[in-house]
Specification:
81% helix, mainly alpha, 7 helices, 0% strand, elongated
Length: 190
Amino acid sequence: MRIDRLTLSLVLCFSLTALTSSCASFHNKPRAIAETVKQAQSQVALGKYKKALAIYAAADNKYGHDATLQQHYARTGDRIRSTADTAFKKGGFSQAGGIYRTLLTSGITKKNFQEPLSFDRTYLRSRIGSCSKALMERGLVKYRKDDLDGAFSIWNKVLAFDPGNRAITKALQTTNKQRQMLKDFSSVAK
């Protein structure tokens, strides 16, 4: 089989174009990673932790688990966890629970970082449970003072970060039934 000069020239031209494109993307990788870090950090500054973690996860997959990117990714996860811990210590259990849930569902704990995270799935689940318990108790205080709406509001917030919590679901159902009975009683009494 004989290849003519025109075919050979075209094959060489396409090969060089592909090689040039590959080299260009290799040289742009550090710039793209720096831009990714900048975008993610701006989301963290806005309190949009889910979006920041999603930006890192997409870039981590795209750039083949780059060490520099993963270092920023892991440190950001640790900072977000620290923000949740601070809210927890200040009694902001709804906020803390939401942040722990975001970390848990983001997949960050499944990544194999060179430096390990300061938390794992067990820690996050435990903290979510502690937030739920604290808010359950706050709701019970309201409930015992006949503030059914207040109790309902507090317990409803738990489902945002702990949707499978059976005790909270049962408390909400019971409270809702009592609220409805009071409403029915009020309308009959008029």
